[in-house]
Amino acid sequence: MRDEHDGHADERDAEPDEDAGTETPALGAAVTSRIKVMGRMDIAERRVAQDGRATVTIGERAVDLRISTFPTHYGERTVLRLLDPGAQRFDLDALGMPRELARRFLACAERAHGLLLVTGPTGSGKTTTLYSTLRRIASPALNVMTIEDPIEYELATVGLTVSQAQVNARKGVTFATGLRHILRQDPDVVLVGEIRDVETARMAIQSSLTGHVVFTTLHTNDAPSAVTRMIDLGVEPFLLAASLSAVLAQRLVRRRHVPCGGKGCAECLETGYQGRTGLFELIVVDEEFRRLIARNEELGALRDAARRGGMRSLREEGERLAREGATDLVEVERVVQEAAP
């Protein structure tokens, strides 16, 4: 503010302007509204969390956005996930899956029936692994269908003949009801985005027992824990023993930035890392493991049997990558949280 009498700056210029930043909340609300319009969300509803999706063009590349809004005391919080289909190859080798482990996993995936579980926390790459598996086994002769929440990538864009459907709770489409309707479409392979309840778990198991290959995900710390998690949900052990073909647990670790030797540089934003790769732990269910499941044996017995069957733990795989210089032990310890034996 200028003094009108002498042309000098008023002393109040040195103080913070009380009105500074008052445009920021209004600007934030406007940006959120624009994002919600792009995601075909209800811009008038600010008191309920919403999800949406949109596609934007950056240069010559189309990038998918996954939009999430959440009401807070000070207004809506908005988060965008950027997914670049053009950069995604959906290839098990590109994910860092060892060749022998991939061979064993695909052998289970190519059977005429069976349940395959992929486990890990949110953001560990489970969906990408499943999409990569579908790409390896899909063919015009196979009827492949999915029910997801949400559909992360449209697989038709990478040349796969896959029918994808999305959960819609408002219209009564859940994983369980969606799977029930999918089975009337005579599928050969079914992907269920996640098992969240006993109804979905039982439907997935019944589907695998009636001549379908069923892929799905579960949140557990390691591969053996998937068995106890399914039983805790309410699945009968003898049904799980009869249907389960394989369990794959995974994590993502950051790759060591080779040019700077992991010391940090401008190219890796001083982190010492660039890119990520997977850690994988696979159980191929054999007769011994089936008997233990049917008897509802404790987790320690399941881990011992899995090791006898050739399972290498996530920690062991991480230590191998650290020895090879692909990552380091600090990063492995950050992502691997094995339950106590």
Explain how this protein is built:
- The protein has 341 residues and is of the alpha/beta class.
- It contains 11 helices and 10 strands.
- The chain has helices at residues 23-38, 99-109, 126-137, 175-182, 198-209, 225-233, 237-243, 287-294, 299-308, 314-323, 329-335; strands at 50-58, 61-72, 75-83, 114-119, 144-148, 162-166, 189-192, 213-218, 244-256, 273-284.
- Strands 6-5-7-8-4-9-10 form a 7-stranded mixed β-sheet, sandwiched between helices.
- Strand 1 (50-58) and strand 2 (61-72) form a beta hairpin.
- Helix 4 packs parallel to helix 5, helix 5 (198-209) crosses helix 7 (237-243) and helix 7 runs antiparallel to helix 8.
- It is globular, with a radius of gyration of 25 Å.
- The N and C termini lie far apart (70 Å).
- Residues 1-22 have low confidence and may be disordered.
